[in-house]
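Worked example 2:
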Amino acid sequence: MNKLITEEDVAKVLKRGSKVIVAEKGCIITPLALDMIRNKKLTIIEKEIHDYSSSSSVKFPFKKIAIGSDHTGFKIKNILIKYLTEKSYYVYDLGTMDEKSCDYPDFAEAVSEKVQQGKVDCGLIIDATGIPSAITANKIEGIRAATCYNEFSAKSARSHNDANILVLGAKTLGEETIKSIVDVWLNTSFLGGRHQLRLDKITGIEQKYKS
């Protein structure tokens, strides 16, 4: 039976702050839902929907991603949401929702909180340079946010440092470079071993200065 998308489904997407509707091929969209989609200028992505809940052949180490940005990263954030959704990731948009000037710590904290609580597998944060949001995120216990600027740093951040948040600079990198960095970061697993021992030392330092 073809899945039905109603205005309630659209409302849920809007509540999450997303601008993308992922529709299963052959699904039926009610007239009211279609009107809402058009009025809110949402993007419909039609594709095959796979159930990853019981699959043992998931290609990527991450499935659920929280993403956030300040006003300087707003455009890149929306580009990445569409890009990752098309690749079958579950993306949670935590803002900002427009290009009005705002404060990067608010969104860095929101993404970090989702990661820390285990509600998502990892996080992506975008600001102008990728530096201030990383500083903010790393104030939160258990967060390892890495600012990456090429594929090598992205691979190292995951394989050696088990980074759980990737931070990017919208004004320092081009769109295609950012996509490539994100792809490498999401497709690289932590190596463990001696690298875990070093992370344990970082955790020890974190606990030592915990108030």
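The beta strands are 4-5, 20-24, 28-29, 43-47, 64-69, 90-93, 122-127, 145-147, 165-169. The first helix runs from residue 7 to 15.
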